[in-house]
Structure formats: C-alpha cells, structure tokens
Amino acid sequence: MNVPFLDFDAVFSQSKAYMHEAVERIIANKSLILGPELDAFERAFADYCGVSHCIGVGNGLDALALVLRAMSIGPGDEVIVPSQTFIATWLAVSHVGALPVEVDVEPGTTLIAPDLIEAAITPRTRAIIPVHLYGQPAEMDAICDIARRHGLFVLEDAAQAHGARYRGRRVGGFGGAAAFSFYPTKNLGACGDAGAVVTDNADLAAAVRRQRNYGSEQKYVHVVAGHNSRLDEFQACVLNAKLRDLDRLNAMRQEAAAFYHTRLAGHPNIRLPETRSDREHVYHLFVVQVPDRDRVLQHLRRVGIDAAVHYPTIPGDQEAYAFPVDRRSCATGRRTAQEALSLPFWPGIEPAQQEAVVSALFEALGHAR
Ligand SMILES: *Cc1c(COP(=O)(O)O)cnc(C)c1O
Fold first, then answer.
1. Which atom of ligand 1 is the closest one to the Cα of 64?
2. What is the distance between the alpha carbons of residues 27 and 35, in angstroms, rounded to a whole number?
3. HSE-CB of 89 using CA atoms within 13 angstroms
4. Tens digit of pLDDT for each residue in 143-164?
5. Whole-prediction pTM value?
6. If you take atom 14 of ligand 1, which residue's CA is the nearest one?
7. Are strands 125-128 and 78-82 parallel, antiparallel or unpaired?
8. CA distances to 56, 162, 195, 241, 246 from 15, in Å
9. Rg of the chain taking only CA atoms, in angstroms
10. Residue whose CB lies within 8 A of the most ligand 1 atoms, among 162, 181, 235, for a mutation test
11. Per-residue model confidence as pLDDT tens digits over 180-217
C-alpha cells in the first residue's frame, strides 16, 4: 500500500467549499484587506485562545518578528531560542537585528530544556522564545518563572500548536505574546500564507497593529517605521470557517497518534514522542526517533511509505548562521536532527494506512515482539 506523507485531497477537500464561500462573501463585502472578515476572525481566535487581543499578520515568521520589533528588541540584544526548531524561530530574531542564543532541547520531547536556560542568560538577554514543537506545549510555568526572575519577555512560538493545552489552558496566553502560523498544512491552515499574534497586553497589541500596517493607525499618519504584513480578507474568511473544525480535527490527530503509540510501544529501536501528563499534545506532526534514520527513510520510501524529516539540520548548523557566535552545547538537538522521522500523519489517516507504515517500520528496524 502506498501512503502519502499527507493526503492533500483528504485535508483540503473541505477547504474547497470554504474557498468558494469566501470569494462570494468578499465580493459582497467589497473589502479585500483589513475588513470585516479579519475583524471577525481576530475576535474569534482571541476568544479561542483565551486572550483579549489577536492581530492578523501575513505569516508566522512576521508574527514572531513584529512582536520583537514592537518590544523594541534589536541590535545588541540577545534572544533565547531552542536548538531544534523550524528555522523561522531564529530568523525572526535575526530580522530585527538581535542575536539568537541557542538552548538545547530535551531528548524525549524535543522541547527547550528549562534547566539549561539560566546558563544562557547574559546582561544582553531580552526574551525567550519557547517553541511548542510538533504540537506539544513547552514547559511554560518553569520558563515564565525564569523569565520573571530575570526580567525577560516570553514569546510563545505556537505555530505548530493551535489549541494545545498546558495545565488545562490553551497555548497563547502564557507569555507576553504568542505567534501563530496558518500556513496551509498547520493544524489551523489557511489557503495561502497567514499568521497572527495574540496577547493580553493592550499596548503591545496596538504596537503590533501599527507594525503590520506601515506604522500607522490613522491613514497617512506614521508613528513608527512599520511593515506591511496583513492577513487578507480571503484567508480570514477561510480561517473563520476552519476554526470551527479545529477541535474536531485535533481530536482526530490525537486518535491517529494513539494508534501509532499503541502499535509502536516497546520497540527497542523506536523512541516515541514523549508526552507530559500536564499537557495536551495536538500532534502537528508525529515524530519518532530511530537509529540509522536515513536508511530507514530510504526503506520506507522504497516500499511506498512517504515519511519526512523535521528538521534534518538544526538552525545553528545552517549556512545562514555560519558566522562566529558563542555556540552552546546543542548535542541533543543535533542528535534529533539525525534521528527524527516524521511518519505519515493527518487528521483522518486510515488505520490500514497506519498499519502499513508500522509494518514497513518493523521491516526496516526488526520486529520487537
Ligand atoms: C511554520 C512555522 C513558523 C513560520 O510560519 P510561516 O507562516 O511559515 O512563516 C514559525 N515557527 C514554527 C515552529 C513553525 O513551524
């Protein structure tokens, strides 16, 4: 059986109806940018996250960068980021002229290790960006505690964790602000690029609002040298419709994850994603760690199983970050880059498809039992 990494038709068939509806509504509204659809989505998504403000922006990278910019974080400042993440977390820091300072991740969760953070803090440190990688919230209480003691700003990178909960509360309201991406394949995905910032801080919300729209609140009055990064009406309309499905789709992801957990448990050569009992993982991806990953990946592809790797090279080892900086120890992040294997996964993947993935994995790694 051939199993794609993600079944485009299964995932986007529902979006088709939403896209048609969005076109009709936008033509009726006669507004394409900063109109009623965005207002409605911003209210709905803020409510969903349990925070008071949401600002729609062009994409997830801009969501991160515009918060840093709004906080006046820039040249001479340092921002703590995890050693293993999608590179956008680091790029946001670089784009405002600050220095990303890496802190290694924990081996089982691939989330930033709270007990390594304090050693990376210097007088220039301004902020910490914990990433809720693969859909599991980082350890926010410990991280916010450290931040409070050192006067640091916390920006959640929630691009992979729409709806995930930490100690019963949804991500987005733990730090000073949170950044979301609605890239089409994310748990809440638009039909193009889109992102958002959520926060409980009214002043910060206003500053991000200015940043996304040329530094302006009132037409042709520019109080800061801002950007142009807005969430357009078409994407807002699609997102509004899809937000109503998010919890149901996340539950389907959790069901598919439980299947993999059950079938793969106990295999000596498969490290399953560790989930902490105080968190609700929404499984943006289902990432196992295996020895000799590239050989396993090749075997899977040979038999028609389209697995993937998130992410094969940690940001600090990319050419983009080849300048001399004070590299920390990031042995765990680097090891996960070598061993991580993302199994075919989407809400609605069939048990028979998952069973085919499991069989192919056992062929490659040997049966456990
Ligand atoms: C997708 C993603 C981003 C960036 O979002 P874009 O909308 O693609 O710019 C940032 N951080 C993480 C962890 C992501 O997965």
1. 10
2. 12
3. 30
4. 999 999 999 999 999 999 999 9
5. 0.97
6. 159
7. parallel
8. 20, 18, 17, 9, 13
9. 21
10. 181
11. 999 999 999 999 999 999 999 999 999 999 999 999 99
